[in-house]
């Protein structure tokens, strides 16, 4: 008996669909699944999830909030204006739940159609310079009960007081509040989601631990893409963050890490993300204290590109630290605004092995433009590469050590829509488009520019870099990765293997939710590309390309997007008389043989090579015997009556013929004996052939 309950189908629209969905969830046994077939499920009240259940759907299934749902006006008693679209029930959806999986459909918060006509008169002020998006929205929303962004209700998914939550392969769009809100939880996985235009955070985690957020795209309309308040053991990696560009006053940071009520966050790992064209900045930290003397936030192997476009937020930066502590290493900061790293309000930052290039001033105030700006904190800068930061590489009190200034890092490409932050190398560097190691005419000065190795300092480790690595870590995005550019002034005769996705171990087991497969339920309906002008006040160009930005612009960035070179079989070509003693693993095949020399080697190949070797030796023996007889004949002719030489020549001819007779008679005897006994080779063919 199946534990899956199916609803809908035929792309129909079901109104008040929460009634059917809630009944199905209630009646589905523990460990079962409720599956939404293709169609639109319009809800006018929350969907109540329960523990140990999966809610999933077709890629064309849409759960949509009703137009003018008016939850503030209709809820009394057990309901609350803070109830989410999908939650565990109770006041504000705050009942506990565990072992919940939600996947593979679309949740439409329908923000655009949850307002009354009185709201229309407010829209003319939206986006006016000097008025924030939040301020405009709040002013308009005060006139209607229909929608109130960021005030705690119409959250798309809210799970609370439990463990083992897995939310993945969803399209979450047009939300009034948070996309996914999780509090007092542990073991949370949020991955492969497209989170588009929320009214608050894309994912808001509070007082939780053991979280893993990865492979998501966040189109940020307000607040942050990812927020962690009072969370620890938190992985945030392989995500893309950018400001939703239809509202020029949109958004906040890509990631916010903060202490809100306590304890202070710690063991927060932020790596392999791409932050581009965000409104405030890439990573924003507030009141994050050290944990037992250790650094609490680790920011590494990320790209920060043109972040901090805001003219209504006073300070922008790639990494902004307010009374917080962090390690910032092996990143690329390219053309961010105000500062690559900004520290204020106390706290400390250790900034090392980064490449910081082209920092711009604040769009409106004209302040900043520094690589690292310390207003009031403790900052050290070690082994970074700086280039063309418009106001200089430093501002404020900064401890400096072995930085390289005014040097072109020699990226492969950083213009237009083509970004490749590998650094050039004469010995060899990875080309993700060619899927091969190639060499350049120049060496980047950022090769081997990172920290000198120290067993007590993990940030100087170069053990993941391929040889020749110069026994020193590279600066920049690919330092201490399998894509690190090689050391040397000559092209390496033997290049490394194709890079692999890097594994960055943490001190905890990340989210334990066991999400299933599934496909992304909806591709992004439209994609935008930044113009080449980094100072354009409207740096967004809307297009409708065939491929999303993640495939066209970002495909060259991370190892997981690089494929291995073609195998020998895939590049195999037929060439006459190209066979040899090795019958496998070659890049040419001799069509005259009964086997393909391009096939992968196996045990049979070893046996076949033995057979070919014997046959080759037989041919050599035949040639040797022929030469021996010829030599003996010449010796006999030129013996000139010398009986000793005449006898030797006769013996050589006799023993050569005896040897051949013995070999062929032995072969004939064995062949006749096996045929008489009725021998049949178990793998086909004759006894003297293999495979």
Structural write-up:
By secondary structure, this protein is an alpha/beta fold. Among the domains are: 301-503 and 556-565, no CATH class; 602-676. It has six helices and 43 strands. Strands 2-4-7-10-12-14-17-20-23-26-28-30-33 form a 13-stranded parallel β-sheet, with no helix packed on it. A hairpin with a 2-residue loop joins strand 36 (411-415) and strand 37. Helix 5 packs antiparallel against helix 6 (643-676). The chain is flat and about 125 Å long. The two termini are 47 Å apart.
Characteristics of this structure?
691 residues; alpha/beta; 13-stranded parallel sheet; 6 helices; 14% helix; flat
Helix content: 10-25%
Number of helices: 6
Radius of gyration: 34 Å
Biggest sheet overview: 13 strands, parallel
3D shape: flat
Structural class: alpha/beta
Strand content: 25-35%
**Termini, distance in Å?**
47 Å
Order of neighbouring strands in the sheet with most strands: 2-4-7-10-12-14-17-20-23-26-28-30-33
* Poorly predicted regions: 73-79, 115-136, 505-571
Mean pLDDT: 79
Question: How many β-strand runs?
Answer: 43
Q: What does this entry show, briefly?
A:
The protein is α/β, with parallel strands linked by helices. It contains six helices and 43 strands. Strands 2-4-7-10-12-14-17-20-23-26-28-30-33 form a 13-stranded parallel sheet, with no helix packed on it.
List the helices and strands and how they pair.
Layout: E1 4-7, E2 12-14, H1 18-27, E3 33-36, E4 39-43, E5 47-48, E6 53-57, E7 61-65, H2 71-74, E8 86-87, E9 100-103, E10 106-108, H3 133-141, E11 157-168, E12 171-173, E13 180-191, E14 194-196, E15 203-206, E16 209-214, E17 217-220, E18 226-229, E19 232-237, E20 240-243, E21 255-258, E22 266-271, E23 274-276, E24 281-286, E25 297-300, E26 303-305, E27 317-329, E28 332-334, E29 339-352, E30 355-357, E31 370-374, E32 378-382, E33 385-387, E34 392-395, E35 398-401, E36 411-415, E37 418-423, E38 429-431, E39 436-438, E40 527-530, E41 540-543, H4 549-552, E42 573-574, E43 588-589, H5 603-637, H6 643-676
Parallel strand pairs: 1-3, 2-4, 3-6, 4-7, 5-8, 6-9, 7-10, 8-11, 9-11, 10-12, 11-13, 12-14, 13-15, 13-16, 14-17, 15-18, 16-19, 17-20, 18-21, 19-22, 20-23, 21-24, 22-25, 23-26, 24-27, 25-27, 26-28, 27-29, 28-30, 29-31, 29-32, 30-33, 31-34, 32-35, 42-43
Antiparallel strand pairs: 36-37, 38-39, 40-41
Helix pairs in contact: 5-6
